[in-house]
Amino acid sequence: MTQTIHGSVRACICFATDTAGNASIDIAISMSLFLMALFGIVDCSRLAYIDHFLATAASSASRYAMVRGSTWNGASCTNTINGGCTATSTDVATFVKALDVTGISSNKLTVTTTWPGTGPTGLACGTAFGTNGPGCVVNVSVTYAFNFALPFLPTGTMNLHSSASETIVQ
Q1: Up-side HSE of residue 136: CA atoms within 13 Å toward CB?
Q2: Is it the case that residue 91 has pLDDT exceeding 80?
Q3: Gap between the Cα atoms of 150 and 39, Å rounded
Q4: Using CA atoms, how far apart are residues 68 and 85, in angstroms rounded to an integer?
Q5: Which parts of the sequence belong to the TadE-like domain (predicted)?
Q6: What is the pLDDT of residues 136-157, one digit of tens each?
Q7: For 102-137, what is the HEC assignment?
């Protein structure tokens, strides 16, 4: 007794057991997931990098304002390098935005500097020289409008923020 299999039935049986293209599909799916994870890590690392920059910028800016209080010499700052000048909030913002850091857009930076008229203990400081006189506190707040570059990460603007306070010495 012999069995004959029609040609179309044999083609169906062969097609169901053929695995020639499975490796290509597996690699495509695996590479897609791998690349999504890799670029997600890169984008999140960029977020951490900018957050670290903001902390450093706020600290540096508060030190910049700390040594340029009202008793320094009264001259206005003509550039961010000039050491012989009294810092204003505009000067502090210019100082932070002049920091040349790769990957950070200065037009997304917001710098707010305040002199609350208090000392480090929170009590009113001697304001004979103004709220930016020696013994008073200067507060610097730096904000950056961050956007993830990849479409599968959050799409809205994330405002990263850091602040620092120092007691004015001059």
Answers
A1: 24
A2: yes
A3: 8
A4: 6
A5: 21-63
A6: 889 999 999 998 887 777 777 8
A7: CCCCHHHEEEEEECCCECCCCCECCCCCCCCCCCCE
